[in-house]
Structure formats: C-alpha cells, structure tokens
C-alpha cells in the first residue's frame, strides 16, 4: 500500500472544495451533488470536521419548502451551460422561494442523516459549539417526511423514485424495462458528459433522451408528486435501505439533542419490514426493485439489491451475504463489488452502472458487512477498495475484474471513502 494514499486522497478533496461545498470532479461535474456531498462529508471529517459540517449545511441550505433535497445545487459562479441539464432547464425558481439557490427538481438516495451523525462523531465539541445538529436535524426530518409522505406511490410504505437519476445508479439494467415505455424527448440538447468521458462508458443517446423526457414532464407539472405524472415510478431497494439506515442515525441524533428517538426507531422498523416483505426474493437471495405501475418486480442482478445490508436488524442479512460471495458478485474473491451480476449477458465492465465497481457502493457494503458481524469479508472489501485506489488513483469507477480505472479522475467520493477506510484501520 502506498504510504502517500492518504495524502493523495486529501489533495483531491482540497482541490475540489469550492468555498462552501465540494464538486464531484472538475469538468464533468462542476456543481454540488446531493448524495456525493454525504459521502464527501464522511471523508472530510478526517481532514476538517468544520468543513465536513459546512458541506452538509450547504446542501441543506438549498432544501425545497416541501422538504426535498435536490440532487444538484448549481454553483452561481459556474457558467450556466457548463452542465446539461443546467439551471435554465430545471426552472426551480418557479416553485421555490425568491433568492433560493438554483437547483434541479429531482432527488438522490437519503444517506445524509447517516453522514451527519458520523460527521458529528468526528468532532462532537466543535459540532455542539456550532449548533450543527440542532440546525440540521429538523431539515433531515423534513427530508424524510417528504420521502415517506409524498413518494409512497405504491401504498406499501416504500419510497418511489421517479427518474433513474434519483437512484444514483443512473443507467442500471434494473431500469431498462420501465424506461422502455418512455418516448425520448424531441427537444435538441447537447450532452456535456461526452466532452469529458468516452461514449462507451456513458449512457446511450436513446437512454439520455428518455431521461430528459422524464425530467421535462416532471418540471412541466410543477414537480407534482402523483403517480399519474410519472411514466417511471419504481420502489428501489437502495433508496429505501438508506432511508432505514438514516432513520437509525436520526434516532442517535435525537438522543444527542435530548429528544425522543422512538419515532425514528419505529420508522426504521417500518421501512425494514416493508423492504423485506415487498422487495426481497428468497429464491435468489437478493432484493429487487418493483415497478409501481405494473406491480411487478424488476428482477435483475443489480448490486442495489445487496445494499439493504446497511439496515440494522435486517432479518435476511445471511442470505444477502451468501449472494455477495456467490458467482454473481464474487466479493470474497475479487474484493470489489461489481454494480451488476457478473454472470449476466447484460454485464458491461466499463459502462456507467452496468458493471463497473464504485467506491461508495463498496463503502456501503463494507459498513453493512461489519454491521452484521461479517468482519473477515468486510476486511476483504476494504483491502480491495484501498488497493484499487492505490493502483489507479481516485477514479469514478473501475472494472471489477481488471481494476482498470474509468470515468472521471480525482473523483471526490472515491477519495472521501478511501480516507474513511484508512481511518478505520
């Protein structure tokens, strides 16, 4: 292991800091992204707890009045056309307060309370002095209430996502079936992502046209959350698992603030039960997303189906562990979690979320494995992530078999979780 790995990871986060928040990577991602900031805070807390706190405070400063946390907060100093879809596309000012930061209208997985609690734990006295948790806690509660109140389209107690981008795993094969019902937009647009990454590593033009259509429809309906508005509505295991894990973190935050943790523990149990009862498939030992419109499970080998390992008290954790080490993911052998089933014909080792290993997903599995007492396997995952970063740098994602790096370089959440893994030694 390179002696300079910590220093190199630290430099990435320092270079990508833009005053109040951290961009995921220069060029390709020039603004603040929601779940990126949560993972980034996990790393920043080892460098500057104050900066880690500000990272989350900055993101929640752009929270909408309805409680949603937008998936992009646009940097006013960055040219408006540096990223597509940019602020002119989303028109967020039409539904937020005057002077509110320009944002997108979509969301991303709710890992924020977990990040806030871990950030507090890094420097409790500083956090208390700054009033970090008293200020953030009500915003986190409003965020969770938005998800459970406005997004339970299926009536089963699970959150629905309305766009593949909301999953954080943009073009996973899990979304192919519901996405196939969506007619691509007829509007002309320029894909900025292809100026920074090879087309073979990114979503296809057809998929991108469908993404834009879904976002246009949501925008044109005033970001209304009703099932009739959305051609794409899916109960995603990753999103709901992180909601449950974050409810556990909110319970800890409530105790710190002298509040009753019971409502959060009850919500954790409710989401956990709904996940296990609705999305778990005992036949293949994995969770699968559910298409709300058809009521059918979206059976495919997405790594999202393993992320419920982060949920405390998950009753089917043993089955998930067996799946992680089986031929579909080979986690005990290769140490890096492929984002899709290695044995499936749809597996693509270098295309965005259709096969490559991502470091934040590895971190979640490492945490989940430790939570359920699988310390040896967790150590294998930790070693695999650290050695991959040492070999190829802080890439956006890597081929899980060759370990070649792909996507953006000097990617912030990669550097952040590496710092956290190093600190766990």
Automatic annotation (TrEMBL):
Which keywords are on file for this protein? Glycosidase, Hydrolase
From what superkingdom does this record's organism come?
Answer: Bacteria
Indicate yes or no for the key word Hydrolase. yes
Q: Which residues form the Mannosylglycerate hydrolase MGH1-like glycoside hydrolase domain?
A: 29-414
Q: Which InterPro entries match?
A: 6-hairpin_glycosidase_sf (IPR008928), 6hp_glycosidase-like_sf (IPR012341), Glycoside_hydrolase_63 (IPR004888), MGH1-like_GH (IPR054491)
Q: Which Pfam families match?
A: MGH1-like_GH (PF22422)
Q: Family per UniProt?
A: Belongs to the glycosyl hydrolase 63 family.
Q: What is this protein called?
A: Mannosylglycerate hydrolase MGH1-like glycoside hydrolase domain-containing protein
Q: Which organism is it from?
A: Amycolatopsis magusensis
């Amino acid at each position: 292991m390179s002696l300079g790995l910590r220093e190199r990871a630290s430099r990435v986060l320092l270079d990508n800091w833009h005053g109040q928040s951290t961009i995921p990577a220069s060029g390709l991602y020039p603004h603040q992204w929601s779940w990126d900031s949560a993972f980034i805070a996990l790393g920043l807390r080892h460098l500057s707890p104050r900066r880690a706190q500000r990272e989350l405070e900055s993101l929640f400063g752009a929270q909408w009045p309805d409680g949603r946390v937008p998936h992009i907060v646009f940097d006013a100093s960055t040219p408006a056309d540096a990223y597509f879809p940019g602020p002119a596309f989303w028109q967020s000012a039409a539904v937020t307060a005057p002077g509110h930061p320009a944002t997108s209208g979509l969301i991303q997985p709710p890992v924020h309370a977990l990040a806030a609690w871990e950030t507090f734990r890094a420097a409790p006295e500083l956090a208390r002095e700054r009033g970090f948790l008293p200020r953030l806690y009500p915003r986190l509660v409003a965020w969770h209430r938005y998800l459970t109140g406005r997004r339970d389209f299926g009536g089963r107690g699970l959150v629905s996502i309305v766009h593949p981008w909301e999953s954080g795993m943009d073009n996973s094969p899990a979304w192919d079936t519901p996405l196939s019902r969506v007619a691509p937009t007829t509007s002309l647009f320029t894909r900025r992502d292809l100026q920074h990454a090879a087309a073979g590593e990114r979503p296809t033009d057809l998929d991108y046209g469908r993404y834009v259509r879904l976002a246009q429809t949501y925008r044109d309906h005033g970001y209304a959350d009703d099932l009739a508005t959305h051609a794409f509505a899916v109960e995603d295991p990753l999103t709901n698992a992180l909601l449950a894990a974050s409810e556990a973190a909110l319970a800890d935050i409530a105790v710190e603030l002298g509040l009753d943790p019971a409502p959060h523990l009850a919500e954790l149990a409710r989401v956990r039960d709904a996940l296990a009862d609705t999305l778990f498939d005992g036949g293949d030992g994995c969770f699968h997303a559910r298409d709300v419109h058809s009521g059918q499970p979206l059976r495919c080998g997405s790594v999202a189906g393993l992320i419920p390992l982060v949920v405390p008290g998950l009753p089917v954790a043993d089955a998930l562990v067996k799946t992680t080490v089986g031929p579909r993911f080979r986690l005990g052998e290769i140490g890096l979690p492929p984002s899709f089933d290695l044995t499936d014909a749809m597996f693509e080792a270098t295309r965005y979320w259709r096969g490559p290993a991502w470091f934040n997903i590895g971190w979640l599995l490492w945490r989940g494995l430790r939570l359920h007492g699988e310390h040896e396997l967790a150590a294998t995952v930790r070693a695999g992530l650290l050695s991959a970063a040492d070999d190829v740098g802080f890439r956006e994602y890597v081929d899980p078999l060759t370990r070649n790096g792909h996507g953006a370089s000097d990617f912030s959440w990669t550097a952040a979780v590496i710092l956290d893994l190093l600190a766990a030694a």
